[in-house]
Write the structure tokens for this entry.
Amino acid sequence: MSFYKYKDYIEEGDLVLAFISRQTIKPLTVKKGEQLNTRYGHFQHDRMIGMKYGEQMGGARGYGFIYLLHPTPELWSISLPHRTQIVYTPDSSYIMQRLNVTSGTRVIEAGTGSGSFTHAFARTVGPEGRVFSYEFHEPRYLEAKKEFVEHELQNTLITHRDVCNDGFEINNIPEEFSQDGLINGDVIFLDLPAPWTAIEHLDKVISKKNRVGICCFSPCIEQVDKTIKALQDNGWINIQMTEIAGRRWEARKDMVKDLKDVVKRLKDIQSRKSQGIENRRSIKVAGEKRDFEEVDNDSEEDQLKGKGFNPFGKGTRIKEGDEIYDWRNVTKIETEIKTHTSYLTFAYFIPSDN
Ligand code: SAM
């Protein structure tokens, strides 16, 4: 199952991302005889085989449904089993375009963590590019290695290594990964607690021909300070720190209410109040059912509009943008920042033979 090749139909052994709700996407490997159980229904793997990726699947006994999605790095990052904090798409996509990661780029990444960013790098650099990923925590390294094989990230080589102490060099680089026996990285991404201690080891593994870009991902500003100092000491230039602060931007229509409507609304409240009092009185006195007539002061035009006396709400469901009302376009942003997880420190290295 590959993250950078698409296929149409689901086969046994394939990875499917079951979209259960906006908040829940569950990765599963299709196996005959197994079943996905959710509170929205039960979904047999046998029935998934032969279905098209993207299709809706109904639950057993016609109860509930899910969508069977093809894996992508973006969906993987919101559904993967977390072994660490991860880099999400708002950051990874920005880093990728800023460092010009493209088909054929040779990336060096440390640490691998849960492999969220590794999948995005692997897909972007494609079959021509290479990703060299390093992880010093053995269980995480083994888990990621297994996952990269299962996901057919053939362009990715993971190494079990403490890069801060032992650097990035690899003895006997597999032939399909080596360039004249070297790593020759064009882009470096460091998501480590102390990236400044790894920077001095980079000169042995970066390209000697191309301009090299680096991004260090650090949650606090003291780490950024130390990283900048190490970058300067090691000859990196154009150092800039960026913070991604993505927010949801909502564009919608707001009903235009004029003074006439406001006055009418107040009059209506008043008249309903007095009718209510009268009504209660008549019930009390006569002990009989309500017998007052609705006072309707609306103009013919208003009645035609169907809005009755009150265009503002209660009792009347108004569809946003309904052509019989006046609307203006408004925008609203969320105050809460969704995406800031770290500061991104960028820099470049120009090799002397460039
Ligand atoms: N970027 C990853 C992702 O998107 O899934 C998450 C990386 S996680 C925050 C940091 C990882 O760096 C951890 O798994 C940790 O074990 C690893 N790490 C920390 N220090 C390291 C070192 N000196 N050498 C290699 N890996 C290291």
User: Anything to note?
Assistant: The radius of gyration is 30 Å.
